[in-house]
Amino acid sequence: MKPQQKQKRNRLIALSFVSVLLILVYGPLAQWFVAADRMLYDRLATHLPNKPLDNAVIVSIDPSRISQGSLVDTYGRVIAALNQARVKRIIMAQPPEMADNENLPGWAVAVNANVPVYAPTRHRFADLATRNGFVEVRSDSDGVLRRSELWQLNDGVMSPSLPLAIAFDNHDATTSHRVSSEEDAIYLSNYEELDRVKVDDLLDEYKNKSSLAGATVFLDSAPALVGAAAILPSGQFVTVSEITAALLADVEKDRTIIAPSWVGAMEWLAPILLAIVAVLFMPDRSRKDIAVLAGVAVVMLLLLETLLLYVLHVRIDLGRPIVIFAGVAILSIWLTGDAKQELKDAFKKGNDYLAAGRLEPAFAEFRRCPPSETVATVMYKLSLAFEEQAKPERAEAVLEWMKRTQGTPVATMTGSLDPSKGPQRLGRYVIERRIGRGAMGAVYLAKDPRINRPVALKAIPIEKEFEDEELKEARLRFYREAESAGRLAHPNIITVFDAGEDKGLAYIAMEYVPGTPLKAFTDPTKLLAPKRALELCASTADALDYAHNQGVIHRDIKPANLMYNPKEGSLKITDFGVARMTDNNSTKTGIVLGTPMYMSPEQLAAEDLTGLSDLFSLGVTLYELLAGEVPFKATNIAILMTKITSEDPAPISQRRAGIPPSVDAVLAKALAKRPEDRFSCGAEMAIALRNCARYS
What are the respective helix, strand and coil percentages of the chain, to the nearest 5? Predict the structure, then answer.
């Protein structure tokens, strides 16, 4: 099947699948999505920052201790005591029940003589209260109270809820501008507990009640937990007074959680829009691209729902868009097939055609393969085969395709720096031999013919790892960082002489220092003496302090980048000016910014770095030099990141005999999770290390 036909077929299948999925999520599966949305909301609402009412308390008359006849009388005595204490307002969210034919108590006529009193609508006290509003506790089907009505139609008139009526009457607080008749409900999250005052203490005339002056007092006969009327999304059991207090705090503190009218429209439109996007863009992509696109979309939707709730206090259900997008992604991955296997088959067919002398079919199959050195090699053989068949125009077409896709001629790509073919050049430098290889390229011993000086030449395949605009930015970053490193002049830092670019490789010419990377001394059988390891790390800390003062951060301090000459006892830091080059391209194959096991928590989190990150990496390096293994080890990068950011390593004095406890203190400070808890600079760390070395 041709690619165009396959793409069209896949889109039609995806469109049919989406149509069925939309019917299901808004039909038979709707209740499942409601339950999932409630569960997600409960998790988020539990940790939502809350602000309780200022200067508010709850007074609960325990009905189990007194008779029903004495309950109403106790209310009157408590209200009288609260009036004497000059409280700000009294809220009876759940006053005692009174029959219509029952006489009001004598104290009721003076209920708001001095202090405003608020009571529920349709209660006998409602006509005597300063203001009244309806109180309604209506939990969802799972028994959790998440929503509270703000307005209610009573006898043709819109009446506010009790918390809203209280807020309207409070001239000292600014009622939330988000609360209006258009918003018919607000959502509850969690409850910040208010202090409770005992009735006996309140009625005791010898008790000091000055702390109640100006307070908001909730008066009821529902003790905490025992009198609970509902469960909040946070899992807290709350009484009617506590519910009223939570809602009143939300209104007066302007943190009401609402679902505006546009939210309902978005909950309907988002699944449809994302379904269209998924159908148009997913079926014709690779499995990897589909997985990345779907993962990013799901994370962004979850992040959007979280941000709307935490920042704007807006509740929205984005579960359906997530399922739609994820469903189309899974279908597209299945329809796309195994791209890697198809490429392997294409390469095998191309080789078979080439061996059989069928050059045109071989060219067609090889063109389906992504650019690589292996493909470049067989394509070069193909061009030679066309030459042998007296088809120079086809050989030229093969070479032109290679130049267009690979970026450089095959001869340059496959053997430009092969020392076995004799000394070769990079810029003006003559390559003698390779002396090292790392994740970012190779290091060669070279000679500067102008002054006959040996140099260490680090070569980085910049044109292979970057394209178009990324390549331009990478070049600028490379030369800028090389220039910064070139300004460093310190006895413990390798000097950078020159930087340039040739044959698709960016190179840095550095001082050649014979020696051995400290990585060789991390083998448990070849460890340095503790005193020597401390002295070497102290020298490193001094050098880092100098570089940091010059505005240069290394970003990849590790034993492999510390060159040690045992004969002279000297140490030099290598690779300044190289690590940051890949900041914007750290996921490219073969180039990794830093080494994860030596990274600081802030570097793993991709935060802006300071020199304190290098000090953390130096602490990891010292630990490895002393113990023979890094302090943080894991089987995968996720576990490693968790350990680096949240776990403390075992004290080094317990890992190796003869190390004083003072080294534990130095390492604990160097490996602190927060930068501000580490040494303030490299010089301070160097002093601490040398003090430890004196007693080792």
Answer: 50, 15, 35
Largest separation between any pair of C-alpha atoms in the chain? 119
In this structure, are residues 363 and 405 in contact, taking their beta carbons and an 8 Å threshold? no
Pick from 653, 655, 670, 665: nearest CA to 691: 665
- Rounded distance between C-alpha atoms, residue 612 and residue 682, angstroms: 8
Beta bridge partners of 454: 447
Evaluate if residue 416 carries a pLDDT over 50: no
N- to C-terminal Cα separation, the chain = 74
pTM for this model (two decimals): 0.47
Closest of 47, 30, 50, 46 to residue 317, by C-alpha: 30
C-alpha distances out from residue 130 to 86, 165, 168, 181, 448, Å: 16, 10, 12, 22, 94
* Spatial contact of 585 and 470, defined as CB atoms under 8 Å apart: yes
Residue 583 confidence (pLDDT): 43
Share above pLDDT 90 across residues of the chain, in percent, rounded to a whole number = 30
- Report d(CA 497, CA 510) in Å as an integer: 5
Task: Decide the pairing of beta strands 185-187 and 230-231.
Answer: unpaired
Distances (CA, A) of 284 to 288, 337, 338, 386, 557: 12, 11, 13, 34, 43
Q: Is the pLDDT of residue 662 over 50?
A: yes
Amino acid at 334: W
Angle subtended by helix axes 30-46 and 319-336, to nearest 10: 110
Query: What residues have CB less than 8 Å from 245, skipping those under 6 apart?
Result: 52, 53, 56, 58, 191, 194, 218
C-alpha dihedral (243, 249, 251, 254), degrees to nearest 10:
-140
User: CA neighbours within 13 Å on the CB side: how many for 495?
Assistant: 8
Beta bridge partners of 517: 563
367 burial via Cβ count (<10 Å: 0-12, 13-18, 19+): middle
- Distance (Å, whole) CA 434 – CA 452: 18
495 touches 487 (CB < 8 A): no
Q: Are the C-beta atoms of residues 575 and 542 closer than 8 Å to each other?
A: no
Question: Which domains, ranges and CATH numbers included, belong to the chain?
Answer: 3-46+269-336 (no CATH), 56-252 (no CATH), 339-414 (1.25.40), 419-511 (3.30.200.20), 516-694 (1.10.510.10)
Residues 276-298 pLDDT 10s: 877 877 776 777 788 888 888 88
Nearest to 510 by CA among 561, 444, 422: 444
**Structure-block tokens of residue 423:** 């000394």
pLDDT, tens digit (0-9, with 9 covering 90-100), for 342-368: 677 788 888 888 888 888 888 888 887
Q: Which two tokens stand for residue 453?
A: 């000086």
β-bridge pairing 157-160 and 185-187: unpaired
Instruction: Decide: 106 and 134 in contact? Cβ < 8 Å.
Output: no
Q: Which residues contact 225 (CB under 8 A, 6 or more apart)?
A: 237
